[in-house]
Design a protein that fits this description.
By secondary structure, the chain is of the alpha+beta class. The chain contains 11 helices and 24 strands. Helices cover about 25% and strands about 25% of the residues.
């Protein structure tokens, strides 16, 4: 059972309260807090399958290994037990306690010597400063943050507008610096973000309307927290559920609007493992089923055409299981078993009329944009391909172009598993 997926349109009443809080908050950034160093982050793009032995096994391994790992599970992003109408049913419940116990059992299934729910949620905020919870955290060798609504982590583990650490969060930060593993999925990964953490939005509305600081009841509106999350990851913006919900467009728009030159956009059931976090030796490895989109905006240029936003010269790489990435040098090393792909097929790239898998398109498909990009790298028939938005007024068009330094790798000899340095531009479609 996957306990942390939410509907694409779903929001809780907390969003409205959060929006009011943010309007009054100062724009103090998470970068003011001490940077974590030394440990490992394992950040999953959501949709983590119970049977993903690779990711669960790696969390346990990094926490000390089978029979030794002690995992603290935090699920404050879930609703508290009193707000869950299914709280009494262990098969359908989805509250903080229920989810915490569920993940604890999963980690013990994967070999942890002990896994415990840390009983903190939005109705038990004081527990984040309790000696008992701190002692529980200090006894752990690794931590897992579950999914839900990342703003609940902000309100339950950080203090007020200043976003100072609770005692529990300070202890987790110290443990990470000393070598522990901190993992999370969906909101549990997003909360690791530094400044400008995304709070919601769909790609088409993001391209059309841009981004706004805050947290909004309208789930299609691109919002972000200038203050960020916990600030554990600072190699770029993070996004999650990318291919499943077609979030590539919102990731690019938010980075451009907020002045970031890199986004790592994580697909579901897929993680980045960040080793030696915060040190000069920091490196990333991709784990899991799908991939991680890396958008490089160092040379990007924004403008307007007909009053609508445009961007050009974004570099797009897509990394899959085993691929390694150096955030300092921007260098990619293909995973073991992959070899360079020499395009030999003359098959044209299939048309794509829904680049970002619109919720309004009954025939839409997930992983739409990455699918078009991979097809382009594998063909000799063309050097460019386009993908349009399902929505119109205006419609947008994504132009993908091979560069002289575009590279692709394959595991089966014919299809692209990974690629680097396609060029992306987004413009209003011609009438």
């Amino acid at each position: 059972m996957n306990r942390h997926l939410r509907t694409r349109r779903g929001r809780t009443a907390l969003a409205l309260a959060a929006a009011l809080t943010l309007l009054a908050a100062t724009a103090q950034t998470a970068s003011a807090r001490p940077a974590a160093a030394g440990g490992t982050l394992i950040l999953v793009g959501g949709g983590l399958k119970d049977g993903n032995t690779e990711i669960y096994g790696e969390i346990v391994r990094k926490a000390g290994g089978a029979g030794k790992a002690r995992i603290g599970v935090l699920t404050a992003a879930s609703v508290p037990e009193s707000q869950d109408p299914d709280a009494a049913d262990p098969d359908t419940c989805s509250n903080s306690r229920c989810n915490g116990l569920y993940y604890a059992a999963l980690f013990e299934h994967y070999g942890a010597a002990d896994a415990q729910w840390v009983p903190i949620d939005v109705e038990h905020v004081d527990a984040a400063d309790s000696d008992a919870a701190v002692a529980q955290v200090e006894s752990m060798t690794g931590f897992f943050f579950g999914g839900g609504d990342q703003y609940r982590y902000v309100t339950s583990l950080l203090h007020g507008d200043a976003r100072t650490d609770s005692k529990v969060m300070a202890a987790i930060r110290r443990k990470l610096a000393a070598g522990a593993v901190v993992a999370g999925s969906s909101a549990g990964a997003q909360i690791a973000s530094g400044p400008d953490m995304v709070t919601g939005g769909d790609s088409y509305q993001a391209l059309r309307d841009g981004s706004t600081p805050g947290y909004f009841a309208d789930p299609t509106r691109l919002g972000y927290l200038p203050q960020g999350g916990f600030g554990l990851f600072d190699a770029g913006l993070l996004d999650t559920h990318t291919g499943t919900y077609g979030r590539e467009g919102r990731a690019i728009r938010l980075a451009a609007d907020t002045g970031h030159d890199r986004v790592l956009a994580l697909d579901e059931d897929t993680a980045i493992e960040v080793e030696h976090t915060g040190t000069r030796d920091e490196s990333l490895r991709v784990l899991g089923t799908h991939g991680v989109s890396v958008f490089d905006l160092r040379s990007a240029r924004t403008g307007t055409t007909g009053g609508h936003w445009t961007i050009d010269k974004v570099r797009y790489s897509y990394l899959t299981d085993g691929d390694r990435y150096d955030p300092r040098t921007w260098h990619v090393r293909a995973g073991e078993g992959k070899r360079p792909l020499t395009a030999t097929s003359d098959t044209p790239v299939p048309p794509n009329h829904d680049a970002f898998y619109s919720v309004d398109d009954p025939d839409g498909r997930p992983y739409s944009l990455s699918g078009t990009a991979r097809a382009l790298t594998a063909t000799t028939a063309q050097r460019t391909a386009t993908a349009g938005t399902f929505e119109s007024a205006p419609a947008f068009e994504v132009l993908l172009s091979k560069r002289g330094d575009t590279r692709a790798w394959t595991a089966d000899g014919t299809t692209a598993a990974s690629f680097t340095d396609l060029e992306v531009g987004v413009h209003p479609a011609a009438d």
